[in-house]
Amino acid sequence: MNDAHRPNPDGPQLRTLLLTDLCDSTTLVERLGDGPAAGLFREHDRLVLQLQQRWRGRLIDRSDGLLLLFERPIDGLGFALDYARGLRELGASRKVELKARAGLHVGEVLTWRNSDEAVRVGAKPVEVEGLAKPMAGRLMATARPGQILLSAVAEPLAHRAARELGERGQQLLWKSHGRWRFKGVPEPQEIYEVGEPGIAPLRAPPNGPKAWRDIPLWRRPAALAAEIAVLAVIGTGIWFATRPQPAIAFNQRDWVVVGDLRNLTGQSVLDDSLEQAFRISLEQSRYVNVLSDLKARDTLDRMHRKPDTVLDRAIASEIALRDGARAVILPTVAEVGGRVRVSAEVIDPHTQTTVYAESADGVGAASALASIDEVTGALRGKLGEALKNIEKDSEPLPKVATGNLDALRAYALGSKAYAHRQFDEALQYFQRAVQIDSNFALAHMGVMRVYVSNADTDAARPYLEKAQQLRDHLTPREALYLDAWAAEFGPQPSLRAPPKWKLLAGVYPDYFAGRYQYAWSEFLANRFDSALAATTAATAPQEPLRNVAFELAGRVHLSQERYAKAIESFKQAEASGHYPPNRRHAAALAAMRRFDEANRMLDALSADGDIGSANLTVQFERIAVALDQDDLTRARELSRKAAEAARDAGLLVRHPMRFTDLLVRSVSGQNPPSASEIEQFAQGVLNDAVKPGSADQDDLSAIALAAVRLAQRQGERGVAERLLPRVAGLVDVSGNGQSRKLLRIAYAEQARLGGDPQRAVRELRALLDGSEPFQARVALRDALLAAGRAEEAASENRWIADHRGRAYAEPIGGQVYLAMNVADAARARREAPRTAALIQVLAPVAAAG
């Protein structure tokens, strides 16, 4: 051998070896190109040099990856961790992913220096050999991209010294990947992974031809197949010997359909009463959801069957399959051996086979209520509900309903009539139930619900108060429902009721009333995102009133200018509610400027233009669309007729309709209202708001503030000065958030009219959080114009023109602002293309009010 190439080995030395390999380097060059790739590799070399100096490493070879020697394992680990982090940063700057495999091992190696002549002709300055080198190489080759693997020798040494890495060392993740076999290494080796959270893969390496997992013989595929075959034979024999009862994969909050009760006793009083009792008892569960009878009858209609079709095994199973219910429950009451037996079967709707059956016996018809509690408790346990929850969420029927079967039957008949919106009939049944048992809390709530549905809050209040006295006689769910309604009837309902509805929705997430009422309160507050989230949850297929939720979802989408989604939601509401397009649907079309379609829809709802009590509210949209089209003559005619027709309507129709007529007269210039006329109207609204027991203070205060706003728009600052103290007192009492904002708008307008537009701008900008009333933007535009800030005013004018959906959908004060908002949006759109002209046109208006 030539002496120039003869090695001069030193003695064996214990060293830490780190081998790394940059993944997909060839692909990287192809992707970046030669020039950028060369620049990247130069930065890579600088990174390696910095880390080599920081961690006291000795670079041996870099021809195919890196081979470094370290005195201590912790230095090699520190280099590997920093190298992985450095590659991430290099790649991020060039929008490429850079990762390296790394293997770390501790063992004896031989090192020697090559002669200078050998180095000059291409040899490495230092050579390293020994079994430790291929061992580190196997670890590196086995690793996934970005993975650092350690041998069983290196891991404990590095782990013990990890605290030297500081806080980062405490956050390192260490994971064993078990015993592996490497090609050429006789004994299996334990390998470990270490890395930082979010960087290390922390997954077992893949098996390959040079490294594979050391699996015991009994766990290898062939052996496992044989074992499984033996176990299958044994298991099949055991299953046939101890065949279990069929079961349903029932999970928490799954739905059940309760079929019609089969009464085999011949006592008709038990027909409706026990069926209602069975539902009340089962609905106490927070684990099982019961499909309402109204929803079941609605599904019958979609099945083209008569509403009074008996829900037997077959029909109830079909309903369950259509509505996504997991099980059917068929209750039965019969006389067996002189005793009254209540039983119930749980049916699998797919096969119509009985899965479970429970029964309980008692003496006399009065014992049936206790038997129902026993049966429903057993069924809840069979369906998977925990015993402690059954005990917690179960009250005896005589306590949470009534022990009188006649009262229970009257309540059941009232519930059915109420579900079909036969309110007069429902009221008679509920009142009959109260007469039979004056402590029947659910019946008192039934009367209250009928009166609330008829907007007769004065008549509803005594029954609400009586139900509150009997709160302990309600199920937990109905008690929360009562608390929410009590907040609606109490002081500051807009502040106190929404948390109650939210609590009800949280405890009983599949109970429609909680979800919908909370969504409605959020919509009234212009908090559209949270309103939409709650509304979406109320549109589940099992909800009997999902059409109402779909309609609210459409109104929320319209408020956010999501017109396609709004139209889709309105169509879903119409399909599930079986009614034609309504005025909300027409408003969405008008917001999209599809006026012909909107007018046809509104005319159809108005019975070819006739204005009567049945379609009076449709006139709000008809007037708004006329203003939107700048058809002031039509708007004036519609508003005049509507105001006359609304004279005998309720407060929340009569006052908004009267105000709309005043507004149209003002906008059109045809007989504009005088200051005294506006003030007289506002005083009448305020007088109604302060009447004892008024439940409409929030809406009435918003209507009064609309009158103040109209006076200010006509430059009547004195009217506002006289009205605002009284309105402010009413708003302070009600605490309504939107009324407070409207009041602040009125005060800002007073500042503008008083010659201080800069103050008005400051006060109005403070309102802009996404939930501000539409008129806040209009007032801000006018204040900016008055302050000479034309460019900002033009920006606000564009916002007004672009938010047509918000103008049509804003619900404040029973939509008293609808016509005003739409007129402002239409005017802003017409004038937006001519910014310079816009300032000239609007400046005189703003100066005059």
TrEMBL record:
TPR repeats: 407-440
SMART domains: TPR
Coiled-coil ranges (or none): none
Keyword check for Transport: no
Gene3D superfamilies per UniProt: ABC-type transport auxiliary lipoprotein component (3.40.50.10610), Nucleotide cyclase (3.30.70.1230), Tetratricopeptide repeat domain (1.25.40.10)
SUPFAM superfamilies (UniProt xref): Nucleotide cyclase, TPR-like
Recorded GO MF terms: adenylate cyclase activity
Keyword set, alphabetical order: TPR repeat
CDD domains with a match to the protein in the record: CHD (cd07302)
GO biological process: cyclic nucleotide biosynthetic process; intracellular signal transduction
Top-level taxon of origin: Bacteria
UniProt KW Ubl conjugation keyword: no
Name of the protein in question: Peptide modification system cyclase
Species, as recorded: Lysobacter firmicutimachus
